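Table 4 source record.
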Amino acid sequence: MQLPEEERVTLDSSSFKALASETRVLILKELDKKRCTASEIAKSLGISVQAASEHLDNLRVAGLVERIDEGRKWIYFNLTEKGRAVLHPDKSKRLWVLLSLFALIIAGSGFMLYNQYSLQNPLAAAQATADLSAFKTAAPTVDSQLFEGESARSESAAWESGVPSVLSANSSSNSTGK
């Protein structure tokens, strides 16, 4: 599946170099929470302000962080879209993977229950298969018997009583020649 052009993230060598440092990845995670100054990042990570500034500059050159200078005393740093995409790769893709996995688990559980039931009670499984095949062969006869002048009440009573009883009634009426 090809992602649309606007959803793709292109990582060049400077991006890989920037992401190679664990400290820079931690800085990206801090900036994901809120925009920060170099001194705020240094304080939260326990590094010097100079080291934080150097790491932020490397991230800025890689296009993962942007510098926001509003003409005030403090200069803030914020994640770019590229930086957010690196931290949060396509959340919807993860959702579809989880939903698919859940569907497979449900299907597998149903299959296991069916196998367990048929192994514990093979006669019931064989009877269910026989009832199904008898229903398939007798379905036209059942329809004609139910809709030949019987009331709607007797129709619903016949269906509520179950297909095997209708089939047995039908087969007995056919054997007597009626």
